[in-house]
Amino acid sequence: MNRTILLIEDKPTLSDTLKSLLELYQYTVIVAANGAEGVQQARLNHPDLVISDIYMPVLNGYDMLEQFKQDVTLCNIPVIMLTAKTEIEEIDMALQKGADGYVTKPFVFKNLHAIIKKFIH
């Protein structure tokens, strides 16, 4: 069964690279450039998993998480934060706001994929 991942990332080069890697593993990938677009895409496509940056224009990852957790149609979708922020306060904040996983950039795709597989089989 083909699983759908919503990738929310404002840097096109990282977004394109990650999309290509995920597609190699037979995931369907929907891309959004900011949190607001991500919430909209999630409502339209009901992905199996979301991978999101934190610091983006329009709507950041923290505010996006709050919108997901307040929306009955989105609140059960697992969200993995993918960010350059390594401070424990940032990790705690993301987890408190409802993130299911946290991966820091730069990352090894194999490690990210292991976390993805925990949430979607």
From TrEMBL:
Pfam families: Response_reg
SUPFAM superfamilies recorded: CheY-like
Gene3D superfamilies according to UniProt: 3.40.50.2300
Residue positions, PTM 4-aspartylphosphate: D53
Domain Response regulatory: 4-120
Keywords for the protein's UniProt record, in alphabetical order: Phosphoprotein
Single GO MF annotation: phosphorelay sensor kinase activity
PANTHER family: HYBRID SIGNAL TRANSDUCTION HISTIDINE KINASE C, TWO-COMPONENT HISTIDINE KINASE
Protein name, entry field: Response regulator receiver domain-containing protein
Organism: Chitinophaga rupis
